[in-house]
Prior knowledge:
This protein is of the alpha/beta class. About 40% of the residues lie in helices and about 15% in strands. The chain has helices at about 25-40, 55-65, 85-100, 120-135, 145-155, 175-185, 205-215, 215-230, 240-245, 255-260; strands spanning about 5-10, 15, 20, 45, 70-75, 105-110, 135-145, 165, 185-190, 230. Helix 4 (about 120-135) links the parallel strand 6 and strand 7. Helix 2 (about 55-65) packs across helix 3 (about 85-100).
Amino acid sequence: MSKIPTLILNNGVEMPQLGFGVWQVADDEATAAVAAALQAGYRSIDTAAIYENETGTGKALAASGIARDELFVTTKLWNSSSETWTRENVLREFDASLEKLGLDYVDLYLIHWPRAMRDDYLTIFRSFAEIAESGRAKAIGVSNFEPAQLERLIAETPVVPAVNQVELHPYFAQSELRAFHARHGIATEAWSPLGQGRGLLDDPTLARIAAKHGRTAAQVVLRWHLQLGNVVIPKSVTPSRIRENFDVFGFELDADDLAAISGLDNGNRLGPDPAEFDWS
């Protein structure tokens, strides 16, 4: 089985660089999908409260027979509602996620969206720091945060986020945000790393590089993420595709490949703009 490379987060926690995501996987499908991922070799699983599949994910983890300390489990607080979030709200939602997952702790807990217009993410993250201090989350971070919000967290809360999980793929490479993360010791994690199946994998540049290495376009994109230093969490429910996405350690992109892929960046965001997103 291929050894998954890891990153050391800013608090010393070791995180696998390749993980398995379960966005848009129904709860009754998540158990089989996560089981297939674990069998393929994945040890990092990324879920979220809003995915409504923490229970199915937890069942697969429990049935796997894999020691808890060999797994890395991420979930996220869905902080979208009409009310302003308080410490009590956060702790209640965290407890609910732990119960659904059937775990005593998670390895990483993230704020799903900044909702900067609500201005309660500082309160939320201070509550996260309390959870981390208790040992029930080994690391804490955020998702979809931009530099302005990250700077406030760094200045006004006791913990620098360990991770910022953001939309990132060759058409939307987020080079400025990645540079900000690097300056502040924040790991970059990519969601929709393969562009949500919306044309990226048909790009002729990726097809050419894939043919050169005898790989698929998806494998080339995942390899690009890994060589940039991103954490990446591809998602699939198809066992053969799950295995294919894991098989990205037997080749390396050269400088010309990396430059060609970097040249694909057109600023094309596929998901919501974090500056405007406020789904209540």
